[in-house]
Amino acid sequence: MVVASVDNLADERSKAQFDVGAMKIVWAGSKHVFDVTDRMARIVASDPEFRKDNRTTLGRKELFKNTLRKMAHVVKRANELRLTEEEASKLRFFVDEPGYLDLHWGMFVPAIKGQGTEEQQEKWLPLASRMEIIGCYAQTELGHGSNVQGLETTATFDPKTDEFIIHSPSLTSYKWWPGGLGKVSTHVVVYARLVSGGQEHGIYGFIVQLRSLDDHTPLPGIIIGDIGTKFGSGAYNTMDNGFVCFNRVRIPRNHMLMRFCQVTREGNVCLSDVPKQMVYGTMVYVRQTIVSDASWALSRAVCIAVRYSAIRRQFGSQDRGIETQVLDYKTQQSRLFPLLASAYAFRFVGEWLKWLYADVTERLQANDFSTLPEAHACTAGLKSLTTSVTADAIEECRKLCGGHGYLCSSGLPELFAVYVPACTYEGDNVVLLLQVARFLVKTVSRLAAGKKPVGTTTYMGNAEHLMQCKSSASSPEDWLKPSVVLEAFEARAFRLAVACARDISKFSTPEAGFAELSIDLVEAAIAHCEVIVVSRFIEKVQQDIPGDGVKEQLQILCFIYALHLIHKHSGEFLSTGCITPEQATLANEQLRTLYGQVRPNAVSLVDAFNYTDHYLGSALGRYDGNVYATLYAQALRDPLNDTVVPDGYEEFIRPVLKQTMRLSRL
Ligand SMILES: CCCCCCCCCC/C=C\C/C=C/C(=O)SCCNC(=O)CCNC(=O)[C@H](O)C(C)(C)COP(=O)(O)OP(=O)(O)OC[C@H]1O[C@@H](n2cnc3c(N)ncnc32)[C@H](O)[C@@H]1OP(=O)(O)O
Ligand SMILES: Cc1cc2nc3c(=O)[nH]c(=O)nc-3n(C[C@H](O)[C@H](O)[C@H](O)COP(=O)(O)OP(=O)(O)OC[C@H]3O[C@@H](n4cnc5c(N)ncnc54)[C@H](O)[C@@H]3O)c2cc1C
């Protein structure tokens, strides 16, 4: 059945004022990445083994087995098609189902690459890449996650046998949460307190075999299982997040990842000449990948909400004629278009962060550790900012789709449930923002000592100006000047950071001040992270961008992104004196104009994400716009509709009806 709604999207597409094909390349990052991504997405979409529309109706056991089947199929297809690492990782991505492969490739392998010696890499990486072993990453414990220094698991060196004894001394020391651990992994990188010669030497990673490679049973001394069902139907329940208790499990000495710290045969602990934080390297790597992933999740939700808002009509007609597309309501636009702009903003900052990470890695390899604090602050801050915004945005997109957004067939409830733990894993978002704040306060105090700030804090070098400047915006159009926008963001961030540093110094100790002012510090950290995102977006739109109208659309989105933040944080922009109430009003006026400019292009701007219907997994977000027929078809497929008269009628409905009839006769 083709309904009128389908035409809506064709109409919308005909209004586009830019080259959608060229925008697809900009979104992907390059023609090469576009081609690979497009091919992998289509392979997944066309393979019935990767069907996912029944996920929310399956029980946990069935769901998990289903994921195991898909993961095995991924591995099989990757081998059959001789996929490169890049292609295989895209293939896994489009399968769109959290599973042990994410942790194997996303954390176990990177941990060995980052923290293993060359010899250790030569031993373990081929086994892992051929998947002769399956690995995961176990850092968090029942009692401690954020506080890594508080981990209790011990790795005690026994010089008699040349082994480490891995031990969980208490219930709170059980490893708890690692994905892939509960039921699948054969090996794990465990983080534990290194003890040698009766002394503690800090937290390090150790490779431990968990299960027999013959029959998958846990090895002696290991108690292991799944931690239980998680939030939402389907969602992250495809993953076997697990617990493990080690009862004096012995591993060979060379199973300690020894790139940054070696334990000799005699038990001497030799630290290499590198900062101890290098042990946290896997987290930095993964945080960086999470920023890129945020733009995918956000753009997916926005794609669904934009297409559906073009289809959905409510009110506005006289005598039952055609109603208004909800996308035409300014309130809908003011909720949706900043999210569309944020998706593009996060995509570009994610690409930049990837570059930064590669640059820092190269420097670290050359024993230059100077950029490590900035890399930590950027990855921690941007991970926190982008995941918090994305989680909230998915929920906002659900509401933007009205009642139908609440149906699992909209794809949004499951997307939210899968995505929201990103605010917690790889570092709780508030804890990470406090790390950024620590970095900022240090930068401000170094500034006072005459040190020049570098990297993303370079703007703070313009201290005198940033403390005094008053915005020159005197018309709505002035808010389209990159220099005006940037100055406001930089001044707000700098003034907030300086105020925190100044107020901390009034306390008896910096620690006391930091603890007491942590609410302000978190706000200063967010302001700094927003400077990074806004300035990267501005930089992007100032480059040469091929394709008719592409640059113009990105400019519109860039200013929507910046001006909606000025509106959102107007309290901070005003209280720090960076802008006046009149200038805030002008910014809002400009924002409204920009919404009008993006409106005819909205559907094409989400088409540029190039998502398949399989990946979107949404009746509301379908490319062809055939929303209502799909909703109906999916409702009919619900297990509850297998029979017309429900199971339970005889036992529970009929007796009630009978009882009611009896009562009414009385
Ligand atoms: C291509 C495919 C990719 C696929 C990707 C797949 C991803 C799969 C995703 C799957 C989903 C979920 C997996 C989830 C996994 C996990 O969650 S693993 C567990 C993660 N755990 C955490 O993140 C814990 C968070 N806590 C911490 O990081 C630290 O404990 C914390 C930073 C909060 C504090 O550390 P302390 O040692 O106590 O440090 P502190 O005293 O505050 O600071 C000392 C000093 O060190 C600096 N620092 C801290 N961290 C780092 C770092 N990572 N790098 C560099 N420097 C760091 C800190 O700033 C201080 O510096 P200063 O100069 O003394 O101020
Ligand atoms: C889906 C999922 C997958 C995961 N996968 C893995 C995995 O594969 N491997 C692994 O090792 N771990 C994994 N984890 C664990 C994850 O890394 C931790 O949950 C995370 O680091 C947060 O730690 P926590 O749970 O101890 O939170 P807590 O630190 O207990 O946080 C609780 C609250 O306290 C606040 N808080 C804590 N410290 C401070 C502070 N200093 N100042 C202010 N507020 C503070 C937090 O903001 C939060 O509101 C996973 C978690 C989830 C949800």
Automatic annotation (TrEMBL):
Subcellular location: Peroxisome
Active site: 426
Example of a GO biological process term: long-chain fatty acid metabolic process
Primary localisation category: other
MF terms (GO), sorted A to Z: acyl-CoA oxidase activity; FAD binding; fatty acid binding
Domain Acyl-coenzyme A oxidase N-terminal: 20-134
InterPro entries assigned to the protein according to its UniProt record, in alphabetical order: ACOX_C_alpha1, Acyl-CoA_ox_N, Acyl-CoA_Oxase/DH_mid-dom_sf, Acyl-CoA_oxidase, Acyl-CoA_oxidase_C, AcylCo_DH-like_C, AcylCoA_DH/ox_N_sf, AcylCoA_DH/oxidase_NM_dom_sf
Domain of life assignment: Eukaryota
Record carries keyword Oxidoreductase: yes
UniProt domain Acyl-CoA oxidase C-terminal: residue ranges: 482-658
Family (UniProt): Belongs to the acyl-CoA oxidase family.
The name this protein goes by in its record: Acyl-coenzyme A oxidase
Organism: Spirodela intermedia (Intermediate duckweed)
Lineage: Eukaryota, Viridiplantae, Streptophyta, Embryophyta, Tracheophyta
